[in-house]
Amino acid sequence: PHPGIGRARRMQVADPEAQHRVMIEAVENHMPEVIVIDEIGTQAECLAARTIAQRGVQLVATAHGNELENVIKNPSLSDLVGGIQSVTLGDEEAKRRGVQKS
Question: Exposed e or buried b for every residue in 37-74, given b needs 16+ CB within 10 A?
Fold first, then answer.
């Protein structure tokens, strides 16, 4: 491995369609503290990411989007980046931000 990543192991994904299975395999067989994924985007990969998080493993991943709004509006990726929540602002805060209250 590259000296910058220490003792990290790299798992090659031969078939992009199998990336979600390799993600789960990495957690089950190698007990990592962190998993780094390139190009997460399919529903299966997002489900695998949620499974990884439930097991207490940190996940760092890239996803396609020109800006954060594109990722948030993607139904599969939205939950992984915090999703969208509605809020109601008080009069003063709405005025300060120059937006409507809800």
Answer: beebbeebbbebbeebeeeebebebebeeeeeeebbeb
Strand partners, 61: 37
Residue with tokens 């993607």: 74
Q: pTM for this one?
A: 0.73
- What pLDDT score does 49 carry? 93
Is 35 exposed, middle or buried, given 0-12, 13-18 or 19+ CB atoms closer than 10 A? Answer: buried
Give me the amino acid identity at 78: S
Q: Does an H or E element contain 60, and which?
A: strand 58-61
Convert the pLDDT of each residue in 52-98 to its tens digit. 989 999 989 998 888 888 888 888 888 888 877 788 888 999 899 98
